[in-house]
Amino acid sequence: MSVSVQQADFDVGAEIAALSQGRLEVGAVASFVGLVRDVSGGAEVAAMTLEHYPGMTERSLEDIVGEARRRWQLDGVRVIHRYGRLEPGDRIVFVGVAGAHRGEAFAACEFVMDYLKTRAPFWKLEETPDGAHWVDARDSDDSAAARWGTESEPRPGD
Amino acid sequence: MNIKILYFASLRDTVGRAEESFVLPSGVATVGDLRAFLADRGDKWDALAEGRNVRAARNQRMANPADPVGPGDEIAFFPPVTGG
């Protein structure tokens, strides 16, 4: 299974190893791990709760993986995204990509993260000393996704 | 002509409900029409008004305002996503 949406933590080493297990054609594995930080916009963050849209979340991540596989010749792609309550230092997301060479592995890994940031239906609720508040999306995430040369996410009302 | 409407995150908090069953009125043919119809409920539903930063999905895929809405559809409205 290339996509998992789960509450549980994951084993980064095991996931990276699995991407090349028994595949001697793999010459490069690139990976990314996203973590909860203890600051956000200058405020202390005690914890965050990740909400998602069950069903659409899995489908959108599978679409993103499919798009990466169309753009690059890849031997394996793995995406894990957690939801629920997480604390600073906790892992949120894992993206791993296996290919013949580093070029496509690095590029596809970054592409998957950039697309995930603007298309996968997750929302962060941060707990700070001032109370809980929803994190606003950043324009820089849209521009990061847009540089891959396709139209950005549709924006009803624009 | 029933559809299901879902609301997520801050938008759900604002409108005060996570989902509703909705009978499509005549004249509501697209995702954009539906959003405008809901915004016309007034008060807290102003969060769906034109110009507000709201995204939509139709049957669990990102949708454009011009996308059609039909019986049995699942339409979701939510703020821009913040995962990763």
TrEMBL record, chain A:
Region (Disordered): 133-158
Catalytic activity, EC: 2.8.1.12
Keyword Cytoplasm: no
Keyword Transferase: yes
A GO term, aspect molecular function: molybdopterin synthase activity
Keywords: Molybdenum cofactor biosynthesis, Transferase
Pfam families in UniProt: MoaE
Pathway field: Cofactor biosynthesis; molybdopterin biosynthesis
Catalysed transformations (reactions): 2 [molybdopterin-synthase sulfur-carrier protein]-C-terminal-Gly-aminoethanethioate + cyclic pyranopterin phosphate + H2O = molybdopterin + 2 [molybdopterin-synthase sulfur-carrier protein]-C-terminal Gly-Gly + 2 H(+)
InterPro entries for this protein: MoaE_sf (IPR036563), Mopterin_biosynth_MoaE (IPR003448)
Family: Belongs to the MoaE family.
Record's subunit section: Heterotetramer of 2 MoaD subunits and 2 MoaE subunits. Also stable as homodimer. The enzyme changes between these two forms during catalysis.
This protein's name: Molybdopterin synthase catalytic subunit
Organism: Aromatoleum anaerobium
Automatic annotation (TrEMBL), chain B:
Keyword Nucleotide-binding: yes
SUPFAM superfamilies for the chain: MoaD/ThiS (SSF54285)
Keywords: Nucleotide-binding
InterPro entries on file: Beta-grasp_dom_sf (IPR012675), MOCS2A (IPR044672), Mopterin_synth/thiamin_S_b (IPR016155), ThiS/MoaD-like (IPR003749)
NCBIfam families associated with the record: moaD
Similarity section: Belongs to the MoaD family.
Matches recorded under PANTHER family: MOLYBDOPTERIN SYNTHASE SULFUR CARRIER SUBUNIT
Name of the protein described by the UniProt record: Molybdopterin synthase sulfur carrier subunit
Lineage per the UniProt record: Bacteria, Pseudomonadati, Pseudomonadota, Betaproteobacteria, Rhodocyclales
